[in-house]
Amino acid sequence: MPRSRETGGDVGGRCPICQRPLIEGPSVDRHHWVPLSHGGREAALLHRICHRMLHRLFTEAELARSYSTAEAVLAHPDMQRFVAWVRRQPADYVGWPRAPRGSGRRPAKRRG
């Protein structure tokens, strides 16, 4: 499998969140299931949009405490709605996921 400069790892297989194929390029990110700031080491390749949604929904403390596996993340209702939507997008789709309704969290400010 080819190595990707963007992810620093092999690209191939399926995203553990949405199960769409991973295609080398800007649509793939590396995600630490337990954030590095909380001592995490294990990482996986995800679609960038899936990765962004994880960090939009959950704080690093929440990821470390309660959402440190794909199974735990997928059990969350907002992620289930997101996955149902993102599975209809092309595998190389790069975009910003919308904040779920009623989440109470503001979307991150975009840097210009």
Description:
It contains four helices and two strands. With 112 residues, the protein is of the alpha+beta class. It has one domain (1-89). Helix 1 (48-57) runs antiparallel to helix 4. A two-stranded antiparallel sheet has the order 1-2. 28% of the residues lie in helices and 9% in strands.
Concise account of the structure shown:
By secondary structure, the chain is of the alpha+beta class. The chain is 28% helix and 9% strand.
List its salient traits:
28% helix, 112 residues, disordered N terminus, 4 helices, two-stranded antiparallel sheet
User: What is the domain total for the residues?
Assistant: 1
Summed over residues and divided by their number, the pLDDT gives a mean of 83
Determine the number of helices (DSSP H or I, runs of at least 4 residues).
4
Largest sheet: 2 strands, antiparallel
The strands making up the biggest β-sheet line up spatially as 1-2
Strand content: 5-15%
Radius of gyration: 14 Å
Helix-residue proportion: 25-40%
- The SS-based structural class is alpha+beta
Shape: globular
Alpha-carbon distance between the two ends: 34 Å
Count of beta strands: 2
Low-confidence stretches: 1-9
Order of helices and strands: EEHHHH
